[in-house]
Amino acid sequence: MFELKIAMRKLNGALQESDSDNLQRLADYRHYLYQQLKVVQ
Fold first, then answer.
1. Quick one: pLDDT at residue 18?
2. Are the C-beta atoms of residues 40 and 32 closer than 8 Å to each other?
3. 7 and 29 Cβ atoms separated by less than 8 Å
4. Any residues with CB less than 8 A from the CB of 21 and at least 6 apart, and which?
5. With contact defined as beta carbons under 8 Å apart, do 41 and 8 qualify?
6. How far is Cα 38 from Cα 15, in angstroms, rounded to an integer?
7. pLDDT band of 1, cuts 50, 70, 90
8. How confident is the model at residue 12 (pLDDT cuts 50, 70, 90)?
9. N or C: which end of the chain has fewer CB within 10 A?
10. Which residues contact 39 (CB under 8 A, 6 or more apart)?
11. Contact at 8 Å (CB) between 1 and 40?
């Protein structure tokens, strides 16, 4: 659970400074992490 929160924080930072090529992949990964958080909670 704690690892997911750290991953989310890193991912949000990466989304802010990333170029558009990576944005879709990062957004997909963020969506996946959100789904994992919902399952855990």
1. 58
2. no
3. no
4. none
5. no
6. 21
7. low
8. confident
9. C
10. none
11. yes
